Amino acid sequence: MPAPTPCVLAVIPARGGSKGVPAKNLAPVGGVPLVARAVTECRASRLVTDVVVSTDDPGIAAAARGAGAVVVQRPTDIAGDTATSEAAVIHAMDAYETSQGVTVDVVLLVQCTSPFIIREDIDGVAAAVAERGADTALTVAPFHGFVWREGERPGADGGDGVNHDKSCRPRRQDRPQDYLETGAAYAMDARGFREAGHRFFGRTDLVRTDPARVLEIDDPHDLARARALAPLLDAERPGALVPFTPGRLPTRDDIDAVVLDFDGTQTDDRVLIDSEGRELVAVHRGDGLGIAALRRAELALLILSTEKNPVVAARARKLQVPVLHGIDRKDLALKQWCEEQGIAPERVLYVGNDVNDLPCFGLVGWPVAVAGAHDVVRGAARAVTSTPGGDGAIREIASWILGKELS
């Protein structure tokens, strides 16, 4: 019998009282708020079960929810300048376990002030603890500099070497390899973390990351550097962090799968109920034509719905499309489906219309809203149809993808 999948919780501390850079955690880099960048990469991780943002700020909370995170309100006694990240993580973990009725096995501390953290870094520290037996892990970058400190020896004047003897200047290849703690991501065995009260205990694994991506935002100059680097570094990463090109519509080259909400996207969101309590909805024949064309183009297809309804299942059978319905957390179901299908989330087009679709929007590379969708949903979409849901919107999307009008 296979071992149960561990619960891996990523916690992002993001208080609102930054002094060096006011409203730092909401500062956009590459057009995306820092907190949303971190949430997006955590949610795209292979191992992370869920993402919690611990904050005392309503604006940060709204941005975090929009990106698909669970928000935990941080008490004032651990929200000040002297509060530790460890205190925020333990509080968030306790709140999450209580609300979800689960036990966290591995907890991650992810800093959204490291704007170029990537999902591979997050999976690296998570895997070290969840799969390779480490007690703790952190991201590091190779470091070759000579570190100096003034007055290192008692009574000495001037500077002394910290990681070297100043009387000897060995070549880089002759020196032991040093590593710089990046400050971006840490992982801890949850039980050991509670007992120790700090992030380093037992065996600590070092997870190497790309030095080019190491940047912590502490002052306005750091933020300016991050914004200058974002077009270069984000362009190397496909998916939601790449700034959208206004007006560009998805093509077959952009995507490998199309995932469809049902109510409000394949219907007009109205329900007719007969005297026996049976529900009826209206769908558009043109949408069926579009879905058939997408299937012939060998795109993976899925209908994903919160409602468990015989109507949804019947329509899925008619269209010959797999369906997952009666789903409380559509984003987690979508993430698992992508893993099972071997499809990268950034290669998925997801069609939705209401606020419960926003977590899925934050997971995929092509979030699409139908005309008439909720204002917040249209604002979060990468493209919006001109046709309302239930009136041929899916056919319109199929024509975008296939580059031709369907008849």
In short:
With 407 residues, the chain is an alpha/beta fold. It has helices at 34-43, 58-67, 85-100, 119-130, 190-196, 220-235, 285-296, 310-319, 330-341, 358-363, 375-380, 393-402; strands spanning 8-13, 28-29, 32-33, 50-55, 70-73, 106-110, 136-143, 148-150, 159-161, 178-189, 204-208, 257-260, 272-273, 279-280, 300-305, 323-325, 348-352, 366-371, 383-388.
Secondary structure elements and pairings:
Blueprint: E1 8-13, E2 28-29, E3 32-33, H1 34-43, E4 50-55, H2 58-67, E5 70-73, H3 85-100, E6 106-110, H4 119-130, E7 136-143, E8 148-150, E9 159-161, E10 178-189, H5 190-196, E11 204-208, H6 220-235, E12 257-260, E13 272-273, E14 279-280, H7 285-296, E15 300-305, H8 310-319, E16 323-325, H9 330-341, E17 348-352, H10 358-363, E18 366-371, H11 375-380, E19 383-388, H12 393-402
Parallel strand pairs: 1-4, 1-6, 4-5, 7-11, 12-15, 12-17, 15-16, 17-18, 18-19
Antiparallel strand pairs: 2-3, 6-10, 7-10, 8-9, 13-14
Protein model, in words:
This protein is of the alpha/beta class and 407 residues long. It has helices at residues 34-43, 58-67, 85-100, 119-130, 190-196, 220-235, 285-296, 310-319, 330-341, 358-363, 375-380, 393-402; strands spanning 8-13, 28-29, 32-33, 50-55, 70-73, 106-110, 136-143, 148-150, 159-161, 178-189, 204-208, 257-260, 272-273, 279-280, 300-305, 323-325, 348-352, 366-371, 383-388. It has a 7-stranded mixed beta sheet with strand order 5-4-1-6-10-7-11, with helices on both faces. The chain has a 6-stranded parallel beta sheet with strand order 16-15-12-17-18-19, sandwiched between helices. A two-stranded antiparallel sheet has the order 2-3. Helix 1 packs parallel to helix 2 (58-67) and helix 7 runs parallel beside helix 12 (393-402). The N and C termini lie far apart (51 Å).
